[in-house]
Write a structure and sequence with these properties.
about 500 residues; Nucleotidyltransferase, domain 5; seven-stranded mixed beta sheet; six-stranded mixed beta sheet; 18 helices
Length: about 500
Amino acid sequence: MYWIGFDIGSSSIKVALISADDGAPIDMAQYPEKEMSINSIRPEWAEQDPQVWWQNLCIATKNLISKNSIYKNHIKGIGISYQMHGLVIVDEKLEPIRPSIIWCDSRAVATGEKLFQTVGKEKCIHRLLNSPGNFTLSKLKWVKDNEPENYQKVHRFMLPGDFIALRLSGECTTTPSGLSEGIMWDFKENRVADWLLEEAGIDPSLVPGIRPSFSEQCRVGKKGAEESGLPEGIPIMYRAGDQPNNALALNVMEPGQIAATGGTSGVVYAISEEQGTREHTRINSFAHVNHTSDTIRIGKLLCINGTGIQYSWIKNELTQGLSYNEMNQQAEKVAIGSDGLSILPFGNGAERMLENRGKDSRILNLNFNIHKRPHLFRAALEGIAFAFVYGMEILRNDGADIRSIKVGNDNLFRAGIFSKTLAALSQSKIDIVETTGAMGAARAAAYAHGDFASIGEATATDTVQLTYEPENNANEYQEAYQNWKKALDEYID
């Protein structure tokens, strides 16, 4: 018997099959092979068609089942991970009204700031643990204010993972963790923040039915089964945003534990047992997947939008066909600090850790007589690592304890320059674990069903593939970081 997990990313859809006996991975599939397009019809806008997510999920699922020659009726159930903060709105026929406004879209920054001022700083921090920011609720209000003809058609609004569950089951449902990531969850009352929705002019009846993260949330219906190739009637047992789910996949569930990712964007995610924050304008505090009113588990999330996308841009535009490994090998030949060359890795929408400033990327101190392509490669990797360290300083100021970091099988962390720089400056051990978000979602579903006694048991077959320890030459890294940080401070002033 098997469990299946989905990871709904903005680049591709990933599907994982695991054994119901021990949680061991069986196989994975991804579709499309090339990245899905993101439509940006105006500066700082980013949209995707949610129907494309569903179509790609169906293709990947059928390919995975066919490739492994398994009986689909041996699949026990489903777990879903998804790109956070997106907005999908559907009409009474449960069809999307407009493209999804996804996580890296910055159009609602001013909308969220106005809500923050109207509601009041203390109330937002005390009850929401956040300002409304550029998140799902603010995006919905932006639609209400700017596209009233679309808003009038809204039957339910939801997150990307909620839409996939809808397509599978025909039911509109969501989770407390999902509502908290959209800044719609009142932690003091442990319920939907109706007062905030009403202040935004949003009818609370538009919120989908709420289900716990670990629970039978709904079941695959006839249409969903026909289109996806999955058996009708199996349960969706788990749903979470990609960063809480990444932490779960790494068995990061308790206070003091840290998970990180380095994909298109970069994230540091720290678990805390305190419902409070001093850095509400620069980090976010969400209900972790195992949070309850009795057992506080808050995920403090620091996001850097411009990380892997920057290195990808350099590869695609400036390398004439070099692979990432070849870029990394060339970069290793350059000294720490890139001979004075610095790159600020922003330019992918408003950066929350920079207090929602929509800053662009910058290359600084470029000397045509000194710097070659390998310098550019190293400065890019160092700049991303420096941005992570800058963010960790913010997290520490908010009370996070950062001693060791777990990451999945991310290409960025496999770049030695990046991980060595981060380990040296954070004085933290970095463990790279062979796992994925899709596998984590499948294992979480199995745990919710009772196949495993804990997430630790469900992930027991994973191994640490590579470890980076802090090196003794921290002073060299520190000098380069301070030069980079000075340039950043001058840029954002």
